Amino acid sequence: MTDPRDTRRGEEGGFALLLVLWMLGFLALLVSQTLSTGRAALRLGDAALERARLETMADAAITTELFSVATGVSGAGGVWKVSGDEKNLVQVRSIIERNKINPNAVSVTLMQALLVASGTPPDKATVLANAIFAWKNPDLQEQAPSSQGREESRCVPLGAPFHTFDDLAVVPGMTRSLAQALAPHMSFAQMQPTSSLTRDPVVRAALVKAGLVIPGQAIQREDVEDEEALVVVDAKASGDGGAMLRHAEVVLLPDARPVPWRVMRWETSDIH
């Protein structure tokens, strides 16, 4: 005859074994999750470290290029200079940006001429040029187009300068395709008047149309001799972990010390 106490002991032993197995499974899951989280954290850390390394390489190249241009060692000719190897490759170039048109610092006439030179019909160019000017000057808002759609008419000018094409895109009448056509010929940071020596055919056509350049005037060589010249520097840094583009717009200040320039704009983007 079986002793009831032996049966209870067997049941208790089976329950204990089941509890131990359940705890082991839970611990295994916990360890697996911890290891997975740790690996993800390490990957994020490695990515952040690589990004910081690329940014440092690009910034060093930009600083070196700016000192070279500011001291006259090299010109800002827009030619890519390459250094490093496949694992630490850096490319840098600098360009004097006085060949473009700043919508914050031009007349309605020149803005209208640029729009026409970019392919905008003259009637629309006149209306849009007035709208851009009025957008920066709310007191002149009545010059802006009055035939815009309901959605656009709710936009209220703030009287602030344009800093990006996103700012310019909110002007009634400005379309994405038109902004893309204007992009190569406009600068939001350029402080000096557009140079009559520009080699940009669209900008030159606009200057001629606005009566600021004599048709057929010879184009001469440009040098960084003017005070407070705006220089744009791009640096590409790449390695095994990816690539990064750093874009800087600076105003050269030849007499300033210890750094002979003032940064106007920084941009960073990953290259895939």
Automatic annotation (TrEMBL):
It comes from the Bacteria. Residues 97-187 form the T2SS protein K first SAM-like domain. The chain crosses the membrane at residues 12-31. Keywords: Cell inner membrane, Cell membrane, Membrane, Protein transport, Transmembrane, Transmembrane helix, Transport. It is found in: Cell inner membrane. Gene3D superfamilies: EpsJ-like (1.10.40.60). Pfam families: T2SSK_1st. InterPro entries: GspK, GspK_central_sf, T2SSK_SAM-like_1st. Belongs to the GSP K family. This is General secretion pathway protein GspK.
